[in-house]
TrEMBL record:
One of its GO terms (molecular function) is ATP binding. Belongs to the pyruvate, phosphate/water dikinase regulatory protein family. PDRP subfamily. The keyword Zinc does not apply. ADP binds at G150, I151, S152, R153, T154, S155, K156, T157. This is Putative pyruvate, phosphate dikinase regulatory protein. Keywords: Kinase, Nucleotide-binding, Pyruvate, Serine/threonine-protein kinase, Transferase. Its EC number is 2.7.11.32, 2.7.4.27. NCBIfam families: PRK05339.1. Bifunctional serine/threonine kinase and phosphorylase involved in the regulation of the pyruvate, phosphate dikinase (PPDK) by catalyzing its phosphorylation/dephosphorylation. It comes from Companilactobacillus crustorum.
Length: 273
């Protein structure tokens, strides 16, 4: 039987950083039945007191990214006095960097999500990527930072949107033996093109499940093994003609595939360790 665990995620901002860290940590314990509750925009007021009291009553673990010394002290003292397990995510790092650089931190909340140029660049990249999804705008292929190619069910759209969130303007184009490739594709800088592929067994499973989800017969041309092989052969032929890198997305998360792409094309100076 799985053990229940309540995790309270506190932040004086939107709380995404703390939540990601919490999930990354507790996913290592699959036998735990973990429930996450996020409390953003925490202030030193009645809300904070009620959250702390609730954590005490539920024997919850607290993870927080509070930068205010005053609020941190309230949380830390309450947890220590009441035997609550807690983890201060940011301040140990901030303290170490402050000592290393001999500089005083701003301790200003929400800096990561301020509406600066970087934020508006991300919005622009998202808008571009949506406009250029699934080959809607062939001219956009020449304006994109990255062009993704692939047959159906190779994660083109979700991968494009994930990369757009990294300020990368992405255009994606579906491939198939019966599709007409836009002439603009051959004028794109080959260094900006990535071909996506997938394993036959994975494609069969995904496509049949998709048909079932639509209430249709799973045994269609779309999910026929011979037809999928033709699509894979065709896409491999195009990749060979273009001379572009090819990534197999089978058993890879969107995040992992995106990391490989960003490393290959050195987007945002990205390098994997």
């Amino acid at each position: 039987m799985k053990q229940d665990l309540n995790v309270f995620v506190l932040s004086d901002g939107v709380g995404e950083t703390a939540l990601r860290v919490a999930r990354a940590a507790f996913i290592q314990f699959p036998e735990m039945n973990t429930t996450y509750t996020k409390y953003p925009f925490i202030k030193n007021d009645n809300q904070l007191k009620s959250v702390l009291e609730l954590a005490k009553s539920k024997n919850a673990v607290i993870l927080h990214t509070i930068v205010s010394k005053e609020i941190c002290q309230v949380i830390n003292e309450f947890c220590q006095n009441n035997g609550i397990t807690y983890y201060d995510i940011l301040n140990p790092i901030i303290g170490t960097f402050s000592q290393m650089t001999n500089q005083t931190p701003l301790r200003k909340k929400g800096l990561l999500h301020e509406l600066d140029k970087n934020y508006f660049d991300m919005i622009s990249a998202m808008e571009f990527t949506i406009t250029n999804d699934d080959g809607q705008n062939p001219k956009g292929l020449l304006e994109a930072d990255l062009v993704l190619l692939g047959i159906s069910r190779t994660s083109k759209t979700p991968l494009s949107l994930y990369l757009a969130n990294k300020n990368i303007k992405v255009a994606n184009l579906p491939l198939g033996p019966t599709t007409n490739l836009p002439e603009q594709l051959w004028d794109v800088d080959k260094k900006k093109i990535i071909g996506l592929t997938n394993d036959m067994n994975v494609l069969l499973k995904i496509r049949r499940q998709r048909m079932i989800a639509y209430g249709l017969d799973p045994n269609t041309t779309y999910s026929d093994e011979d037809e999928i092989k033709k699509e894979l052969d065709y896409s491999n032929q195009i990749y060979s003609e273009l001379g572009c890198p090819v990534i197999n997305v089978a058993d890879r998360s969107i995040e992992e595939t995106a990391a490989i792409i960003m490393e290959k094309l050195n987007f945002n100076g990205y390098q994997r360790g």
